[in-house]
Amino acid sequence: MLETPWVPLLTAVFLATGLVCAGGLLIRRRGTVGHQKVSDTDLVDISHGVMSAAMILMLWVMVEDVVAWAQVAIFAILALSLLPAYRQARATSGRVDVLGHMAMAVSMMWMLAAMPTLMSEMAASGAGSGHSHGGGNAAAALTATPMWANMVNVTFVVLAAGAALWWLYRAATVAGHRLHLASYAVMAGGMATMLVLMNG
């Protein structure tokens, strides 16, 4: 797993982003009348809220097999659910926002699917630390992360970092919704950080 200092720090980060999105969702839904349909903004908050919870879970336990693939399916549904919002967005900034949210959901799918592969070398190093240095090095070599996984992971790191910069720019230049925009930036930055640490 990740180094101890990062686990509580990132847990606090994702707890904060989750609370911002859950709070916004609850405030909006409390003001709705009857069975009003879920809005695009609601979907974004649901996506980021679920994302925050999933990230916290991954920080504390190795998510594998059925649990991991169930979450992959959930994030695929969340990503696809935002397609109508992309089609309906008229402004370029609005479309980039929606693409950013969809990209974060796809990044979560990658993180969940690739977690065992990305962290295999880290796990082997930890397992070999109690033995001779030669044995530990051999174990790490046998379970080295494949080059293709490294390259794909770098792509998602760049994608998440770019999304974080975009939402920081939006938070600094638009009036209103700055807290939510800042939380999206923090979420994307935290995701990029976690992807780097997992691939360490």
TrEMBL record:
Position of the signal peptide: none
Transmembrane segments: 6-27, 43-62, 68-86, 98-119, 147-169, 181-198
Keyword set, alphabetical order: Membrane, Transmembrane, Transmembrane helix
Entries under InterPro entries matching the protein: DUF5134
Top-level lineage group: Bacteria
Name of the protein this chain belongs to: DUF5134 domain-containing protein
UniProt organism field: Micromonospora haikouensis
